[in-house]
Amino acid sequence: MAQARVDTIIETWKTKAGLTLSAEEEEKLKKLFTEAIERVGARRQGAKELIGHLQAAVEASDSAKIEELLTKLREGFRKVSEGREKILDEFDQIVKPEQRARIVLSGVQRAKESGRSIEQVLFELLSPADESS
């Protein structure tokens, strides 16, 4: 499912942003985004489980467990930020500045049209298909 979503993203960039990619660039982008979507999905599943455990700890008034889970949650947020930076670094290695600019401008236009922030639009790109919108 991630592959179909990535194919759609790339095709949208080609048509709406006027993006041209070499076969190698396209292959690398597809691999990068497919892996990123899979990692985001796994992180979300882990976060859902952690929140379930946190809810149980709160209901049980287990302060030590609550503290442990909140620490894990915060560490998860750090890992998400690090993961985003890593994806951006890899993305920057694949496409040229003009290509990146076209993608960003296309995202800004999409954000304006949808009434959402650019951050929401970009986050949606890496969200599993069943959780975005």
Description:
With 133 residues, the chain is mostly helical. Helix content is 83%, strand content 0%. It has one domain (2-12, 22-128). It has helices at residues 2-16, 23-59, 63-94, 97-114, 118-125. It has five helices and no strands. The mean pLDDT is 88.
Sum up the structure in keywords.
83% helix, 133 residues, mainly alpha
Layout of strands and helices, then pairs:
Blueprint: H1 2-16, H2 23-59, H3 63-94, H4 97-114, H5 118-125
Topology, number of strands: 0
Shape: elongated
Bin the strand percentage. Answer: under 5%
Question: How many alpha or pi helices?
Answer: 5
> How can the largest sheet be summarized?
none
Which spans of ≥5 residues are poorly predicted at pLDDT below 50?
none
Number of domains: 1
Portion in helices: over 70%
Mean pLDDT: 88
SSE pattern: HHHHH
Kindly report how far apart the N and C termini lie: 16 Å
Given helix and strand content, the structural type is mainly alpha
Cα-based radius of gyration, to the nearest Å: 18 Å
In short:
The protein has 133 residues and is an all-alpha fold. The protein has five helices and no strands. The chain is elongated.
